[in-house]
Write a structure and sequence with these properties.
Layout: E1 2-6, E2 12-17, H1 20-23, H2 29-42, H3 102-118, E3 122-125, H4 135-146, E4 151-155, H5 162-168, E5 174-178, H6 184-189, E6 192-196, H7 199-207
Parallel strand pairs: 1-3, 3-6, 4-5, 4-6
Antiparallel strand pairs: 1-2
Helix pairs in contact: 2-3, 4-5
């Protein structure tokens, strides 16, 4: 697939052929969904905790005798029906982690990248450099490249891209991510991908 290469002013400077094994892979919606659910599940801390009647302090003695009071029998003031008592069927700490083989995760990423490519939502830049680390400069460039839609900026590494990272941090509709941390959630969340041509080697090394 041939894609135009732009400069930071939104002008076409050349073209490049995207690796077909990554950007023209079969689109497997079920696999993408599984990878997304796994990532969201693995992000859960699972630290929610409530107390059962055995965890609440007090209540070691019957509130009244079993018979003869005319009231319902009670074994403890820490039962669930009492104010201040324990809870029933409520959350407790657990591990939400879901396993997924690496080959399947990478296949899901190739599918997501292929979706972006087929929708012409991948923008390649020859050199991603700014005159100075200013948010307005980055906002102006993204506006020319994508029309200010939500944008995921993928870079090969931090070296040489410090100004881009700093200039994008304050943009609510944009995010910078290293190629090695490319993930299904960000690919599905943002409308456009903006990448320097140099990042293709990194992506090919990971997903090729």
């Amino acid at each position: 697939m041939v894609v135009d290469v732009m400069n930071m002013e939104g002008q076409k400077v050349s073209t490049v052929d995207l690796p077909s094994e990554i950007f023209e892979a079969p689109i497997l919606m079920d696999l993408m969904h599984q990878a997304f659910v796994r990532q969201m599940a693995n992000a859960r801390l699972g630290t929610h905790a409530t107390k059962t009647r055995h965890d609440v302090a007090g209540g070691g003695k019957r509130p009244w005798k079993q018979k003869g009071t005319g009231r319902a029998r009670q074994g403890s003031i820490r039962s669930a029906q009492w104010v201040g008592g324990g809870k029933i069927h409520t959350p407790h700490p657990r591990d939400y982690t879901q396993a997924m083989p690496k080959k399947m995760r990478r296949s899901a990423l190739r599918s997501a990248l292929s979706v972006k490519a087929s929708e012409q939502r991948i923008v390649l830049v020859d050199e991603m450099k700014l005159a100075e680390p200013k948010t307005r400069l980055m906002a102006s460039s993204l506006d020319k490249l994508t029309g200010s839609s939500s944008t995921l900026v993928v870079i090969p590494g931090k070296d040489g891209y410090t100004d881009v990272i700093r200039s994008t941090n304050n943009l609510p509709y944009a995010k910078v991510i290293l190629a090695q941390y490319l993930n299904i959630r960000d690919l599905m969340k943002f409308d456009h991908l903006v990448m320097p041509v140099a990042v293709l080697d990194s992506i090919t090394g990971i997903l090729g």
